[in-house]
Design goal:
Blueprint: E1 4-10, H1 25-43, E2 48-53, E3 60-66, H2 69-79, H3 89-101, E4 109-116, H4 124-136, E5 139-146, H5 151-164, E6 172-175, H6 182-187, H7 196-201, H8 203-209, H9 225-257, H10 281-293
Parallel strand pairs: 1-2, 1-4, 4-5, 5-6
Antiparallel strand pairs: 2-3
Length: 294
């Protein structure tokens, strides 16, 4: 996987309270953000992910670029109490771009993933201008559009996507409401699975031959995304467990190889005798008595 720095922008506008996604639009985003974080950091351990919101009074950087999943979860938890107002899409993208510009590892590819489920206030001209600017700065931008999307919103996002697209990246995923989880739909999207298109194309041949068709674990994520994700997570947990076990074993062997050093006469004479007195105290006392008798 490519080495990249990714800023994820969540929509915490009033529209994210809607319950047309399980359990709410904001909670659905939170699950999807965790999935994206895992996919990026597992793909390349040196990749980093940051988090920001674009609703309420204005965009806010919640977590700077990090490899710590706990910080991302904590940032999402804080944002849950700040759901209000409308979204500030253009400003949010610009701030995310600045955060990426100041990344420590300049060899990381710049990428922004934007979740949007609310009306877009900016006009087409403003968005297209911003898209061209981001393309010039080599920043790829993915959109996850969900909710009750009007034609106006879809039109604006499509125009932005067409003007920001470069060689790789910059995808637009439109996910309508349904019984499935938002994160499950993302598993098969190009945002998480860039090779999803080619895999889907080979699905029929794999099914006929009774083979896995090149899918990881032999499971097509478009057929059973939950199982595919569970298998992937199980594999990572097992890998971490084995690494921990090997590390503990190596530490134990290194400790056993160290020579045992004893103090002089440590084994021969304990510090305290059976009466709880200092060793040798009675002998000293007897010597003193003998001297007095003499």
């Amino acid at each position: 996987m490519v080495l990249e720095a990714v800023m994820v922008v969540v929509d915490n506008s009033e529209s994210s309270r809607n319950g047309d996604y399980t359990p709410t639009r904001f909670e659905a985003q939170s699950d999807a953000v965790s999935l994206i974080f895992s996919a990026i950091t597992q793909g390349n351990p040196e990749s980093s992910v940051g988090l920001m919101s674009m609703g309420g009074k204005g965009p806010e950087v919640l977590v700077t670029l990090t490899t710590d999943h706990g910080k991302i979860l904590e940032g999402l938890h804080r944002t849950k109490s700040k759901i209000r107002g409308g979204s500030h899409l253009a400003t949010g993208i610009q701030i995310a771009g600045l955060a990426l510009k100041h990344r420590q590892n300049k060899s990381q590819r710049q990428r922004i993933i934007v979740f949007t489920c609310s009306p877009i206030a900016e006009d087409d001209k403003t968005l297209i201008k911003l898209a061209k600017k981001m393309k010039k700065n080599n920043v790829s931008i993915d959109f996850v559009a969900f909710g009750e999307l009007e034609d106006d919103i879809t039109k604006k996002l499509t125009a932005f996507n067409e003007n920001v697209k470069g060689g790789d990246g910059s995808h637009l995923a439109i996910i309508p409401p349904g019984p499935g989880l938002l994160s499950d739909q993302l598993v098969t999207s190009p945002i998480i699975n860039p090779d999803g298109g080619s895999s889907a194309g080979g699905m029929g041949g794999g099914a006929e031959g009774g083979e896995s068709g090149g899918f990881e674990f032999g499971i097509d994520p478009s057929v059973d995304p939950e199982l595919a994700l569970a298998l992937r997570m199980s594999m990572e947990e097992e890998k971490a467990r084995v690494e921990k076990q090997n590390k503990e074993k190596a530490e134990a062997e290194a400790k056993a190889a160290l020579p045992e050093i004893k103090e002089e006469d440590e084994a021969a004479q304990p510090l305290l005798n059976k009466d709880g007195e200092a060793s040798g105290s009675k002998d000293d006392k007897k010597d003193d008595d003998k001297m007095d008798l003499a």
